[in-house]
Amino acid sequence: MPVAGQEGGADNDPFRILRVNPLPMIRVLREFEGGIRLFFHVAIRIGTLRRPAMRESFLRQVYFTGVTAATGLVLRASTVGALIIAFMITVLDADAELAVKMLLWVVMREIGPLAAALVVILRSGTAVASELAMMRISGQTDALRHMGIDPYDYLVIPRVIGVMLATAALTLYIQFLAVLGGMLLSPFVINASFDELLSRFFELVTPVDLYYSMIKSLLFGFAIMNVCCYHGLNPPDLTQNAVPKAVTRAVTQSAMVVLVINAVFAYLVFGVLFYGLITAKV
Prior knowledge:
Layout: H1 6-11, H2 16-20, H3 23-44, H4 52-70, H5 74-92, H6 96-138, H7 140-146, H8 151-189, H9 194-204, H10 207-233, H11 242-270, E1 272-273, E2 278-279
Helix pairs in contact: 3-10, 4-8, 5-6, 5-8, 6-8, 6-9, 6-10, 6-11, 8-10, 10-11
């Protein structure tokens, strides 16, 4: 017979869930440890890209992530800039200077890197996670080890570095198209010419804006591919059903890591978190 009061005490125990099922917490800690180890492996062994086979894999990844994705972004990126200008003019009754500032602050600093990261997650992240998971399940990674080839050198490093550079290139591409689309629309809805908007843009833009977006996009690309490669090479089991599970975990965790990096980076550089809801004390 249970003693009176024991049931209520168990319900109030904050560690009851961990005592009942510690596996989720252990899995999270193992994934975090695996991601850190993969990060250091890429940082230490980046020199292996000088090998011809590694260089070829690196160039293929850059082409797949950057070049093939760029063809479908022309209309979308231009529409983003035009929509931002239309919204600002409708809601805030913006003039030429405010319109240019919004393009600079919203597109250059935030929308460009985040849009590029989203494209990379949906295209390259899912492809890499599923490909590596299939190689792990079918035993191809074990075959590489038997041939004396480190799977992490051959499969991970070219993909991580290639996606990093491709993400930075996609960010520049999206920024250019979005700013251009917004400036082409603005003369039709506000009393300002394209030349005036362009001159104001070059007056307001600073090297910090470019460095900020480029460094952030490189971090996005590295984090996305680090997470996707880890989950691809470490599926939950060695059956065919593990492939969609690995892809789902890779995509969701990549998106979460990107949001965390974006928030922390904005706070460290500009002292602003969550678009001004939290500001640093100067």
